[in-house]
Structures are given as structure tokens and as C-alpha cells.
Design goal:
By secondary structure, the protein is mainly α. It contains eleven helices and two strands; from the N terminus they run H-H-H-H-H-H-H-H-H-H-E-E-H. Helix 2 runs antiparallel to helix 3.
Length: about 240
């Protein structure tokens, strides 16, 4: 890819993304800090590609006078729902691709993921998600509930979203500000949320080859050390 670029040979957006992805995987494998920068470039490339697609669709619509007729008596979707502002304008943030627990934990990302009230306002509480939150509330309140929950879904099935829901539920935000949580408390049989000091560990942010040094000088080399230090910091 470098040679093709140096000799001014054309290559597609897909070629560029594949090259960036390969470089990112290599940098991650050797625990290089530049891997995060590659990830940002990949997201920007996807945004540019989306912009190009939007412009292409606009040109296509402007160049034809034929309006497709709705079939079966259904209205076109654009007459029924309003897309999110980012989508309607042809631009959307990196956080729109996927939820990121680590970004939220360090205070980054868009408001719909980072702010508890906004997160629950934008989140539809499915029955399974309600059961997860209810079980967690019961367990932490000293009642019934599983001490360990293993989330098993396909890619994009909502594992990170579920963890973010737990994270924000016990963030200290008053339950009255979290849409739908009143029903969770009712199902759990409690009147208020128990006090919780959470610890966040994100596997792909832990590198055995690069020990993490905390502000107090403590060197974290293992997963369990991360749990212990995180717990100590939350006290």
C-alpha cells in the first residue's frame, strides 16, 4: 500500500481501511501505543466514506424525476420517523459505531453513552436487560441474584450496552433521573439503589507486555492486580 501511494497509484477506500486494519492489528500485537491513533484514523475514514455515500445518494435523487410508488399502502419510512441529527446531516460520531465501556469510564465519547440520564433516555429496556438490572439490584441489596453473570451474545448483541447500563445504574445518579429504572426497582422489591463502588476492567486495554503504573506508583501487571488496585481506588 505504501508503494502504491508513493507511486500515485489509485486505491479504494476499502483498500485503505484494510491497510489501516492490518497496521492496527500489528501494533496491538506488539502493545504499541500508536494502535489507538490507528483506530481513530479508521473511524475517520469510515466517516468520510459515509459522507461520500450520502453525496452520491443526493446526486442520484437530484438526477431523476421518477418517484418510486409506495406499495401495500405503507408510507415511506422518512415520513414516519425522524433520523437522529447526526444521521440526517450525514455525519455521526465514532461512538455511533459501537458503545465503548473504556471511553465512557475515562469520560470520553458522546453524551448518549457517557451521561447516565441521556443513556437511559436513549436506551430501550428489553426484558432481558431489565432482568439483568433487576438481578444486580437484588444481589447488591443482599437479596437473591446471581453473583456472577456471563453475557453470551453474538457480535453486536448488546454485551457492552448491558455493561454500560449496569455502570450508569450504579453511578450515583438519582434513580428518578434514569428513565425506566423505577420499574426495575419495583421488580427488585427495593425502594432505593444500594451504594456501590464499581471497578472497570476492559480486556483489550490491559497489556501484559506493558505494565500499568498508577498515580501512587503501584505497578499493575496482572488482571487480578487490576481488580485489587481498582477496588482500593474506589474506597
Amino acid at each position: 500500500m505504501r508503494n502504491r501511494w508513493a507511486h500515485q497509484n489509485p486505491f479504494s477506500t476499502d483498500d485503505a481501511y484494510r491497510a489501516l486494519d492490518s497496521a492496527g492489528r500489528l501494533l496491538t500485537a506488539i502493545s504499541a501505543s500508536e494502535a489507538d491513533e490507528i483506530e481513530k484514523i479508521k473511524m475517520e475514514l469510515l466517516r468520510v466514506r459515509f459522507d461520500e455515500q450520502v453525496r452520491g445518494e443526493k446526486r442520484k435523487v437530484a438526477g431523476t424525476a421518477i418517484e418510486s410508488q409506495a406499495t401495500g399502502g405503507f408510507k415511506p419510512w422518512r415520513e414516519v420517523v425522524n433520523p437522529h441529527k447526526d444521521v440526517a446531516s450525514g455525519r455521526y460520531q465514532q461512538a455511533e459505531f459501537a458503545a465503548d465501556l473504556w471511553q465512557v469510564h475515562i469520560g470520553e465519547g458522546s453524551d448518549e453513552y457517557r451521561k447516565p440520564a441521556e443513556f437511559f433516555r436513549r436506551t430501550y429496556l428489553t426484558e432481558s436487560l431489565k432482568q439483568l438490572l433487576t438481578g444486580a439490584v437484588r444481589r447488591l441489596a443482599g437479596q437473591a441474584g446471581d453473583p456472577v453473570v456471563q453475557l453470551q451474545t453474538n457480535f453486536g448483541g448488546g454485551k457492552t450496552h448491558s455493561m454500560l447500563a449496569l455502570y450508569h445504574l450504579f453511578s450515583g445518579t438519582p434513580p428518578g433521573e434514569l428513565l425506566g429504572i423505577d420499574a426495575v426497582l419495583k421488580d427488585a422489591g427495593v425502594s432505593k439503589l444500594p451504594a456501590v463502588k464499581p471497578v472497570v476492567l476492559v480486556g483489550n486495554k490491559i497489556s501484559p507486555g506493558n505494565p500499568l503504573t498508577k498515580a501512587d506508583g503501584t505497578v499493575v501487571r496482572t488482571l487480578w492486580a487490576g481488580v485489587a488496585v481498582g477496588r482500593q481506588e474506589s474506597l
